[in-house]
Amino acid sequence: MDWKDYLQKEKRCSCGKNHICDIEEIIIEEGGIKRLPEILKKHKYEKLCVVCDLHTEQAAGLAVYEELEKAGYAFKKVVYQDEELVPDEEALIYLFTQVPNDCDLIIAVGSGTINDLCRYVSYKMKIDYYIVGTAPSMDGYASNVSPLIIRHLKITYEARPARVIIGDLDIISKAPLHMIAAGVGDILGKYVCLTDWQLSHIVNGEYICPEVMELVRKSIKKVAENAGRAAHRDKEAICAIMEGLVLSGIAMSYIGNSRPASGSEHHMSHYWEMMFLLDGQPDPLHGTKVGIGTVMAIRLYEMLKENREKLFPLEAPSFDPGLWEEKIKEAYGPAAPGVLELEKKTGKNSDKEVLRRRAAFQAHEEEIFSVIDQLPEAEDIIEILKSMEAPYYPEQINVSKEVFARGIYYAKDLRDRFGLLQILFDLNLQEEFTNRLIQEIY
């Protein structure tokens, strides 16, 4: 794939805005790591810090060390010893203390968590970073934001993308199958993201960019068409999936936030992740959770279509802030203060806002359902995930009925971002749809 049209150019878009992706090079090819020294020489970096964890050091870190040593580079190694690394305050502080003050480039070796940590730390330290990918497992390689766990709450922070992304096909094609499947799940979630985004544009007048949406659709198409062959480690298919993941990240960079790539399916996934961490339970890969969240979100959209004829009229809204606050404390535990603060700032659940959105929904009902009709069926997503031996129901990753239900009710309160879950709240459908879905899948 020729990346020149996407990189280091300010693009005047038909949406009226200028888009830019601040990435210098993207290399997705066999033997890609061997090109690292020539790229470093071209950009004149000298003080290097290579960041891995126990797993990514074995997957690609040793190969990076070898290439750097052969080229005569001195570098510091930072290797997280955590068996399961979490991008929280402790991990951030460790990296801040380990990166030398005179470092001019961080080389992150890994996928999701390592990338998020290095992206944020390099941004705050005002130094560049490269990423050497170890698995096609998530779409954050080209992203300009870092989702981190701070005070038990999943928060997305501003950052900047890697200067160079290297996806060595000899390495990423050997990634565990569940990691490849996670990348597929992360991209399948874009079906829901784009639907949520379009509905917010219709209901709230939120800015939307048709060209960025088309870029995300291109990403989805690449991944969906190659998922089956990727399960057999076909390098051409793995390459297409990695390219699709990077395209999704470029879309985020163009917009300046995660809106094109994160919707209701991600909110449910983030809520489940927070509950796993709070309970001290193993947390499945981000894309694994997103794939399941996608199946659930599309099924909820299907229920919305099934109920279309009886959506209106509705009883007047009666939001009880005190009761809601108690429910949030139950649902989020120690992470509740951040959620409560967000509602204070936005008032998105207030009766006034609900009535405004209901009126907009009714006024544009035909347009809204024409957008929803473009979604694939939940069964189609299940079949793709099955082809990769990936889970597709929450119970398969130990999400309890209670946590699942709370996710539908309260995951929307993680972000001020309108979508499916807010629609269910606005139209008094949370209880009915949650109970129906639990009966179907548990």
Automatic annotation (TrEMBL):
Pfam families tied to this protein: Fe-ADH_2
Mention any one GO cellular component term assigned to this protein in its UniProt record. cytosol
Supply one GO molecular-function term. oxidoreductase activity, acting on CH-OH group of donors
Q: Does the keyword Lipid metabolism apply?
A: yes
Q: What are the recorded Gene Ontology BP terms?
A: phospholipid biosynthetic process
Does the keyword field hold Ribosomal protein?
Answer: no
Q: Which UniProt keywords are listed?
A: Cytoplasm, Lipid biosynthesis, Lipid metabolism, Metal-binding, NAD, NADP, Oxidoreductase, Phospholipid biosynthesis, Phospholipid metabolism
Protein name in the entry:
Sn-glycerol-1-phosphate dehydrogenase
Q: What is the lineage of its organism?
A: Bacteria, Bacillati, Bacillota, Clostridia, Lachnospirales
